[in-house]
Design a protein that fits this description.
mainly alpha
């Protein structure tokens, strides 16, 4: 599919640009990061997800507090404890490095033990210990967000819903369907008896679908739709219209969506 190909290409390019940052010497890290961020910011889905991660983050205040009140031993960067906030703050730090506002070399020397005296070694150490784990976490986050959006794009009526047979909403739905069966059995609203029998069989099939623990909403919608079309516009004093309306209301409460 075209969408799957686009996702595959995005991940491949992402990995290539991530490797370019990892392999860059100190002087070229900001440029490689600029290219990395430019690619992400050019992808609407990624850009929106990253903007959400970075929102409500006060990077200037956070960065100014680093190095203060440190415990004895090696200094550490005090990242936010919540995962998404930490990821957002790390992104903002590397944006600052990309923009030349923060020098990655001294960061490596200060916060990565044994990074070496050479500024290229210090820069590479910070990339390896902070940027690379962040980049892996970011791609997992983007995949998760992408999966959620794909799931949301599936019509609600095409979903499979678990049923709790002990819930009040389930019992109400069963009662409404059984009442509709009785109304259909006694109905005089059909000029053709065969059509009435067909509708009765469809309603019984709905009750059968509700007897299991997983139900596809679309299957119920297909079975119920002919009755809705036939009686949905009828006057409210029609017993059939009232019964159909009750079933729709009960199933909507149970399944969250029918049509």
């Amino acid at each position: 599919m075209v969408i799957e190909k686009h996702i595959s290409n995005f991940h491949a390019t992402y990995e290539e640009l991530t490797d370019e940052v990892r392999l860059a010497m100190h002087a070229f890290v900001p440029l490689r990061l600029q290219e990395w961020f430019a690619y992400l910011d050019g992808e609407p889905g990624a850009a929106k997800a990253i903007a959400k991660l970075q929102s409500s983050q006060d990077f200037s205040h956070w960065f100014s507090m680093q190095g203060r009140n440190q415990k004895p031993g090696v200094p550490t960067l005090e990242w936010p404890t919540e995962n998404d906030q930490r990821l957002g703050m790390q992104l903002l730090l590397f944006r600052s490095i990309a923009g030349g506002k923060v020098d990655i070399g001294p960061l490596g020397k200060m916060y990565v033990p044994g990074s070496g005296r050479n500024i290229n070694d210090s820069s590479k150490a910070f990339v390896d210990q902070v940027f690379r784990p962040m980049s892996r976490e970011l791609i997992r986050y983007l995949r998760r967000v992408g999966d959620e959006k794909t799931e949301e794009s599936v019509p609600a009526a095409d979903r499979v819903v678990p049923l709790d047979h002990n819930s009040a909403s389930y019992k109400e739905a069963i009662e409404a369907v059984e009442h509709l069966e009785r109304v259909l059995t006694e109905a005089n609203d059909f000029a053709d008896v065969d059509v009435r029998e067909q509708r009765l069989a469809e309603v019984k099939a709905i009750r059968g679908l509700l007897s299991v623990f997983l139900v596809r909403v679309q299957a119920i919608a297909i079975l119920l739709k002919p009755l809705v079309i036939q009686f949905g516009a009828k006057l409210r004093d029609s017993l059939m219209a009232i019964a159909v309306g009750a079933v729709i209301a009960a199933l909507t409460a149970l399944l969250a969506h029918v049509f």
